[in-house]
Here is the input.
Amino acid sequence: MNNIELLTVFMLAVFVGFEVISKVSTILHTPLMSGANAIHGVILVGAILITGVADTAAQLWLGLAAVVLATANMVGGFVVTDRMLEMFKGRRTSNTPSPDAIPAGKDGRR
Amino acid sequence: MNNIELLTVFMLAVFVGFEVISKVSTILHTPLMSGANAIHGVILVGAILITGVADTAAQLWLGLAAVVLATANMVGGFVVTDRMLEMFKGRRTSNTPSPDAIPAGKDGRR
Amino acid sequence: MSNGVLFAYFVTALCFILALKGLSSPKYARYGNLVGAFGAALAVVVTLTLHGLGHRIPIIVAIVIGTLIAVPAARLVKMTAIPQMVAMFNGVGGAAAALVSLDEYVKQHSVDSGGVAAAVVFSAIVGSVSFTGSLVTFAKLQGIMTGRPVVLPGARVFTPVLALASVGLGIAGIATSSVVLVVVCAITALALGVFFVLPVGGADVPVVISLLNAFTGLTVAASGYVLNNTLLIVAGTLVGASGTLLTQLMARAMGRPLTGILFGAFTGPTTAGSTAELATDRAVRSANAEDIAILLAYARKVAIVPGYGLAVAQAQHTVRELADLLEARGVQVFYAIHPVAGRMPGHMNVLLAEANVPYEQLKEMDAANPEFSSTDVAVVVGANDVVNPAARDLPGSPIYGMPILNVDEAANVVFLKRSLRPGFAGIDNALLYHPKTTLLFGDAKESLSKLVAAVKNL
Amino acid sequence: MSNGVLFAYFVTALCFILALKGLSSPKYARYGNLVGAFGAALAVVVTLTLHGLGHRIPIIVAIVIGTLIAVPAARLVKMTAIPQMVAMFNGVGGAAAALVSLDEYVKQHSVDSGGVAAAVVFSAIVGSVSFTGSLVTFAKLQGIMTGRPVVLPGARVFTPVLALASVGLGIAGIATSSVVLVVVCAITALALGVFFVLPVGGADVPVVISLLNAFTGLTVAASGYVLNNTLLIVAGTLVGASGTLLTQLMARAMGRPLTGILFGAFTGPTTAGSTAELATDRAVRSANAEDIAILLAYARKVAIVPGYGLAVAQAQHTVRELADLLEARGVQVFYAIHPVAGRMPGHMNVLLAEANVPYEQLKEMDAANPEFSSTDVAVVVGANDVVNPAARDLPGSPIYGMPILNVDEAANVVFLKRSLRPGFAGIDNALLYHPKTTLLFGDAKESLSKLVAAVKNL
Amino acid sequence: MNVVVPSETAEYERRVACVPDTVTKLRALGHTVSVQRGAGDAAGYPDRLYEEAGARIVDRDALDDAELVLAVQPLPLEDARRLRAGCLVISFLQPAENAELLEAFAARKASALSLERLPRISRAQSMDALSSQALVAGYRAALIAAEKLPRFFPLLMTAAGTVPPAKVLVLGAGVAGLQAIATARRLGAVVSAYDVRAAAAEEVRSLGATFIDLGLETLEGAGGYAREMTEERAIRQRELLTPHVAASDAVITTAAVPGRRAPLLVDRAMVEAMRPGTVIVDIAAESGGNVELSRPGEEIHHQGVLIWGGRNMPSGMPYDASRLYARNVANLVELLSKDGELKLDLSDEIVAASLVVHEGQVRI
Amino acid sequence: MNVVVPSETAEYERRVACVPDTVTKLRALGHTVSVQRGAGDAAGYPDRLYEEAGARIVDRDALDDAELVLAVQPLPLEDARRLRAGCLVISFLQPAENAELLEAFAARKASALSLERLPRISRAQSMDALSSQALVAGYRAALIAAEKLPRFFPLLMTAAGTVPPAKVLVLGAGVAGLQAIATARRLGAVVSAYDVRAAAAEEVRSLGATFIDLGLETLEGAGGYAREMTEERAIRQRELLTPHVAASDAVITTAAVPGRRAPLLVDRAMVEAMRPGTVIVDIAAESGGNVELSRPGEEIHHQGVLIWGGRNMPSGMPYDASRLYARNVANLVELLSKDGELKLDLSDEIVAASLVVHEGQVRI
Ligand SMILES: NC(=O)c1ccc[n+]([C@@H]2O[C@H](COP(=O)([O-])OP(=O)(O)OC[C@H]3O[C@@H](n4cnc5c(N)ncnc54)[C@H](OP(=O)(O)O)[C@@H]3O)[C@@H](O)[C@H]2O)c1
Ligand SMILES: NC(=O)c1ccc[n+]([C@@H]2O[C@H](COP(=O)([O-])OP(=O)(O)OC[C@H]3O[C@@H](n4cnc5c(N)ncnc54)[C@H](OP(=O)(O)O)[C@@H]3O)[C@@H](O)[C@H]2O)c1
Ligand SMILES: NC(=O)c1ccc[n+]([C@@H]2O[C@H](COP(=O)([O-])OP(=O)(O)OC[C@H]3O[C@@H](n4cnc5c(N)ncnc54)[C@H](O)[C@@H]3O)[C@@H](O)[C@H]2O)c1
Ligand SMILES: NC(=O)c1ccc[n+]([C@@H]2O[C@H](COP(=O)([O-])OP(=O)(O)OC[C@H]3O[C@@H](n4cnc5c(N)ncnc54)[C@H](O)[C@@H]3O)[C@@H](O)[C@H]2O)c1
Here is the structure.
């Protein structure tokens, strides 16, 4: 892709990124942040790719470190998001939202 | 661009197209349709490009026909949309919405 | 192409997105349209100044001609005829896109990749369908032909055959690198467009215009693919996607499935119009809450005319909520109380007092009647007899001689009721069928709740 | 790379978009997360099976190690510690992205295009900032260091210098094709990350986490550019864009400008937390209507406790609207009426009767009190003394001995009042500061209207 | 034309057939208006106000020259006998019970228009004095029930405990009954109601009260009125109503069938099934009573139940009752007037139905 | 302990100090309850119900052995003189006016607790009989005003024209005044109110009525009550109120200052400025009257204005008034009881303030 094409892709992705979350309710801020966080864990793909072509030991170790970190980001991110979202599992269940479910953003001081 | 990249652009554009209008109110259906209609008048660019490199008279005439049609689409589209949108010019003006302002979609029969 | 031109195209694509975004909010719609126009102009100017562009003069002349045709048409057309104008513009756009692809095909004669070949056929077929389909919708709306669904004998079989034929011709044309076959394919598609739209009923035509609009968008995207032009791809896809969604939204707003609109004439007799279920010969205009909400929110003066239905629905609190909302937006609101509205003297007073409507907002009939001529919208909530012009105009009617609220003097009348059934006196109300009347069917409380929600969303 | 792999990447990008879409609606959030996870897994598996990938075993081992660290950490962490967990994961992601870019740079040693060089420096700096910044937020939230804003002496000058230095080093490194300089640049950026986050107050930390999250997204996009990988570009950009918007939304939800959050500690003394304006030493938790709406909409049983403030605000109709809405969603709602709520005997009865609240929904104190322990949310609307635990627990308080509504037995308590001012008896209410209490400040009628709107939007 | 408004002579009658406002209106129609001295005093309209509105204050002898007499109650026989020929009298007339009076009018060649006989068509609503006076009666019935009941109507949760709301039962949901329902509901009572007309159920619910469905067939008569019950049905209806009556704190009865004795809805046994300290207000007491034990104008205590029999209930609120009545009458006069003259157009269904004496003929 | 509830002997008094419900409650506290035969009859509580609740039905001589006497009005002197030593009497006592009675209690070494003297602290709200009875009085005042007014309270737009809503003015917005406001508003009247306390403005508005701000300084006394006005201010206040009174259809006065004659809010001239056909309800008539012309228990007609003077207004609704009063008293007894015995803890501010006679001493 040439740079303008990349720019086009970038611009479209920015719009999609903005639009899909533009109506999110406050209660979902934290899970959404966490989910987005997991998504950028896809850097793991990049980490694998560079590690796979590592020539020197330094590169290999650097790459493997990146793989570990990226895996932690991705896997941990999705798991923790899922936990946060348990409260939305369905209505009429016995686990009602606890006060913790209110995003910490409001109450860092308690 | 290779095909997958094109696909990516296409997919992103589809999302943008969907998302930006997903919350439109009924009263704007017709103007929005008309505005979108004007936008695809940008085929004029394509028409100019092919006409510009026309080799044969047939190609030239075909191309010029396309230019005329595309221009009509684009210019007419924007102008007519603007007319429709006059009612949204601002509040407190004396021209209140007339019953005509209700999209024809509802009352093809009157 | 230089990076500068590509960047200009990029800016144009951005403008188009912003245009669509603006067009979907009442506040920014006009602005959005201008942004779109700016983007389009930018792209055209940049293209015209391209180094090495041939036939510059004829092209500019063609553009001028196109403009001279389009602007007066768009400016002078009657407001009510705008839908057919849009259809027309859309149709010529589709034709242009098909021509562009064909022309490129003719030029290259054979195409290198399967993808481009498919794109040529796609734009030839879909562009043609869009063209003739739009012409037919134009004819229907303009009254050149009947607005009723037209089902030609054998069409049920013939139309799919036509579709298959045109696809087959296209494939054959590509396979044999034959220009003629592809042109024949396009011509077949022209016929297909006609047959596609003929069976659609007049009331449903706008939905079809929107669908054809999306078709044209996709044609443009395909042409872009053929020309390897990102701007056309992005713009065409945007229109294709938003047009598809819009078509669905429009169909939903009319409470009819898209398939019913397109193919209903083949399967059942109820395609005539969306109000076919009402047991009346005369047409009424019904709308949904969003439309009426805009009518109300942008009015200067609104009269609320409560009747027995308000009491039945126990909607007194909701009606007050709506009035308060409108007042907060700067609309002047009053309640016009007919002396015998409801079923006991003072029925409306009891109701509205319960909702704490300030007494100052209530106007008795004699005070309300002079107000209607300067009222933008009269919202009749579950009242009927007390606004029935028959009482004024129709000697011999059982209610003749009863003074009524002259809501028909308001610029717009909106009725909230459940059906076209008459009220206490059991007589029909001609005002329901009046051109300035819009009906919102449903229980008054529910309808009012919807209006409240819709006004809040503006 | 084969078309198959590219297509898989395309599917992954699609999954990510759908994931973000899902995550922004309560109904589909969980599903969205799963779709995202599926997409990510697909991309990883496809990459691992790439023809010609070296060091496959060590890579898989590394992945297993990463998983073994992350899963238990994510599973076992206490609900309240989740924000710092997210920060941590984000930080390591940033580090990984920076490492990937650096590694590629090391490998190519010099880069061909200015664009790629810029991308390397960008991801080195931003990834590093994200990494150490996240570590500091973690420390702040985990209580390892103080949650108060920390402004080191000279930081006001030092931080911008550090930022300039790291950019300068990066440029120099690229210009001289020096690996060392770029590494030094990254190390400087590590320090920058620390100084960037230190001055942020504890209550504002989540906003900063979101910002760092967007940073990481952009780092990933930059890495994608370096590796010429569309998936990374699209995914990174998505996260960068949505993360930026989210950061703004979060700041707005707290009623504070982003700049105030980031740099407030340098300019004024009010950065301690978003509730600093309240004239009290004890912390209260205030939330906005959307949060409380979800709390209510997903509860099974809600108690509404009206008091004098409901009467002052004349919010009786609105409170009923809210209750009706909740009931329509299947929530069980009752009104708990304290015998001396308001300023005259039966004050609440008069009010609620006006709004036509069915008598069956009213529970007098003795009937209401046993209900609270099974109540999910008690909404206290403009009441104060009648729910003040001091009357029960604090001999010597002027209201000691007065029976109260035991709302503190409910799982959550929401107060709608305008301030922390006391009620009739003039004494402070400890329940306002209780961890299970959330305040929605403002006139009761306005607050209730907002709740109604928010519940409707769910 | 010479319009005369005599004082009402009937016992308990405090209303007046013309108020200063309507004097103005009648004068605008081209009539001269004479009001007997003190005619409006009891209703709160002193002579001064009539004079200001342009009426002459006269004594009763003015009836001798009257061309149009406006009254609330039927004129006394001796007044009827002094009317001049061609004079028109508009008032309530209870024609079925006042045959002698009608004969007297006929004998004087005077005409008489009975307001009870106005057809209930849309056009006549503004002249419908039965409706307007029933409105007053219904409102007062609810107030009296509230005032007489030794308990609160509304629910009150107070520091001294919770007072449950009163249960009010309204029997007969015509104009008066609906207004009684509305008023009792406003005061916070829990209201239920019963009526024999089919439309009543929805009407009752439209006021937020509960309709009691006994499962009996409805009884629709002509002109939107009810039909008389058969004795068999009456018994069955009382039987089915008994538990509802017994559970009520206050019962308000308003049932009527035009031209008949009021239907008996609550008999002695039903009263005895009620708790002590409860109240019954029977606004139909004068026309025979919906309650077996009620007596017009009396408060009967029966086994702890107070039975309040209405007698000319609108008169209890004479100011507004007169205002409404006078407007009804003025609207009617407007219909009958042409250029300051009276014109009795017997082809008009309103006139045809209500003119009970004309040109020496009793028309019923 | 032996609790005795004598019949009330005062004229017009229909309440009773103990209802069957509270018999149950007192018995649960370990007391035995004796009720004089017929004591609850006037309030709607027959002896049978007391018996069912576990009370003994006795005659008045039971007072001789009473350890605790519950009454509404102060006991007659002769009853006080038969009490045994250590007996406690709980009732309204109007201690300022009943010095002789207090002396009689002291002479018998009986104790007496005056409900008027209960401090208005949160804990005592459930025993606050002044509040609960004022509630009844305020409700009834509005009903009576509605019933006496010859016009409608609500706005009605009818076929016979529009009836404007009544304008009601409430003077004194304490417990009774607020309830009167609420009730009049419920009936649809347009209500405005005035009071001297600072908090009253917001309280009045919280009921949807208009507060009249005269621009005078507020008069806050101890315990949330008002202070007495100086004569100068009283004159100024009346002057400023005159146009408001003159514009009203109904005026309800409820102003009081504890232990003082009721303030004079409406003098003769103000009454004369009102239109004929208007109504004043003065519920402070017994304690001197807020209205110059009012007489307790009488309806005075003055120049077309009806002035209704209240006399023992709660008694007009004896069933619920007794229920509330009895619960107040029972809550008080609960406070004073320990293991079935009475324990007068003078360190408790409630007891200290309200116990006016104790151990042979009059404590005021
Ligand atoms: N005021 C009095 O004293 C009195 C007494 C007796 C008779 N009347 C007569 O009653 C009539 C009053 O006129 P009006 O205009 O008030 O009432 P109306 O003419 O009876 O019309 C009421 C309308 O409300 C609609 N409706 C009923 N329930 C509804 C609901 N839940 N939601 C929405 N709409 C509902 C009905 O249409 P749908 O069925 O289509 O919904 C009906 O057309 C007059 O003819 C008058 O003469 C009045
Ligand atoms: N019922 C009776 O008969 C009676 C009579 C006299 C006294 N009292 C006493 O009155 C008290 C009643 O308790 P309560 O809990 O009902 O009332 P409260 O303790 O007086 O508290 C009322 C609360 O409402 C809030 N508020 C006021 N206006 C508001 C508005 N417009 N919007 C939102 N909130 C508003 C105030 O807080 P902000 O200022 O922060 O908004 C205040 O804290 C008791 O102490 C009782 O003893 C009762
Ligand atoms: N269109 C008009 O102009 C107009 C005007 C006023 C009233 N109306 C209609 O006429 C109806 C009756 O009017 P009204 O109040 O003068 O009637 P009414 O005074 O004759 O009777 C009062 C009510 O008693 C009911 N009733 C009769 N027998 C009964 C029985 N056995 N048990 C229970 N209820 C019994 C009747 O159905 C009626 O509702 C009104 O409800 C209204 O719908 C129409
Ligand atoms: N905390 C509690 O337990 C409690 C209980 C009941 C009442 N209260 C408070 O006490 C207040 C007064 O109670 P109350 O009704 O028994 O008082 P009250 O009967 O002594 O007086 C009635 C009203 O008359 C007003 N008033 C006095 N002089 C006046 C004048 N010159 N002009 C106009 N108005 C005048 C008073 O301000 C008072 O509002 C209540 O409003 C309430 O706020 C508190």
Q: What stands out?
A: Chains B and F do not touch (no CB pair under 8 Å).
